[in-house]
Amino acid sequence: MAVMCRAEGRTLYAALEGEVDHHRARGILAELDRQMDAARPLQVTLDLGGVTFMDSSGIAILLRLHRRTVQWAGMLRVIHVPEQAGKVLRAAGLERLITFE
Amino acid sequence: MKAINEAVLTFLSRSANEGFARTTAACFAAQLDPTLEEVNDIKTAVSEAVTNCIVHAYPDRLGTITMRLRLFEDNILELQIRDKGVGIPDVEQARRPMYTTGGEERSGMGFTIMESFMDVVRVRSSPGKGTAVTMRRKISRRMGGG
Ligand SMILES: Nc1ncnc2c1ncn2[C@@H]1O[C@H](COP(=O)(O)OP(=O)(O)OP(=O)(O)O)[C@@H](O)[C@H]1O
Ligand SMILES: [Mg+2]
């Protein structure tokens, strides 16, 4: 499984693993949507520590998670961003929109 | 300029081949002894170009994608990814950040990423005939080593 989630009240912790590309994006999006619908979290933490590769398909996933979180005034934190994924996210200017730690 | 080494690979536009294509390009590049960051840059650029063929060039059918890898003097790696799909009517517009015809699942950043990770990105396209993306990257020469 590419997404590991843990919800507690209105906080959601989601960890992505492996290669985040177009081939796997649809499954990841569906699982994150399902978790977001169930928890309607005010605090979302996305852990990218286990991501071995990410391309622009990951950007769309992050943007969607961001949009869905702020929709009900929640907060999104992205943690443990690996070198390669970070370079892709910076090239796309995402650090201006989303907090990376 | 004459290539020192060359490999050509044709595969179907199935998304399972995205990982295959970027790993293959990384293996070919290994003869230049690239750094980990350079390998990752190459994989990322290939992933963007190949995904574009799968998503945009052949939106509702399977087609073929050809990846040509070449090596030139001065540690220059050239990657060409081409398709025989729908083509791009306006390449300049397509290369602009955030321009996408792909809807919510795409962000319109693929070309921007290719441009920031490679030294040169050239796009040739004709509507109805297909698209060829050619990218070059000079790989650093490392001192010492083995
Ligand atoms: N091989 C191709 N064949 C046909 N159209 C293409 C091709 N490559 C790119 N395009 C067009 O150029 C646009 C921009 O491509 P780009 O890779 O920058 O963004 P994207 O694919 O839409 O989104 P992202 O790459 O961020 O997921 C695409 O939306 C599509 O309209
Ligand atoms: Mg793209």
In short:
The complex is a heterodimer of chains A (101) and B (146). By secondary structure, chain A is α/β, with parallel strands linked by helices.
In total, the number of strands of chain A is: 5
Oligomer: heterodimer
Number of domains of chain B: 1
Estimated helix fraction of chain B: 25-40%
Largest sheet properties of chain A? 5 strands, mixed
| Class from helix and strand fractions of chain A | alpha/beta
Tell me the radius of gyration of chain B.
15 Å
> What percent of residues of chain A adopt helix (DSSP H or I)?
40-55%
Bound molecules: adenosine-5'-triphosphate, magnesium ion
Global geometry of chain A: globular
The number of helical runs of chain A is 3
Count of distinct strands of chain B: 5
Give a verbal description of the structure.
The complex is a heterodimer of chains A (101) and B (146). With 101 residues, chain A is an alpha/beta fold. The model of chain A has no long low-confidence stretch (mean pLDDT 95). In chain A, strands 1-2-3-4-5 form a 5-stranded mixed β-sheet. In chain A, helix 1 (22-39) links the parallel strand 2 (11-20) and strand 3. Chain A has a single domain, classed as STAS domain (Transcription Regulator spoIIAA, 2-Layer Sandwich), CATH 3.30.750.24. Chain A is 43% helix and 35% strand. In chain A, helix 1 packs parallel to helix 2 (56-71). The radius of gyration of chain A is 12 Å and the shape is globular. Chain B is of the alpha+beta class and 146 residues long. Chain B has one domain: Heat Shock Protein 90. Chain B has a 5-stranded antiparallel β-sheet with strand order 1-2-3-5-4, covered by helices on one side. The mean pLDDT of chain B is 96. The A-B interface holds A 19, 21-23, 25-26, 29, 53, 55-57, 59-60, 63-64, 83-84, 87-88, 91-93 and B 15-16, 18-19, 22, 37, 40-41, 43-44, 47-48, 51, 54-55, 97, 104-107, 109-110, 112-113, 116-117. Adenosine-5'-triphosphate (ATP) sits between chains B (48, 52-53, 56-57, 83, 85-88, 94, 99-102, 106-111, 131) and A (56-57, 59-60).
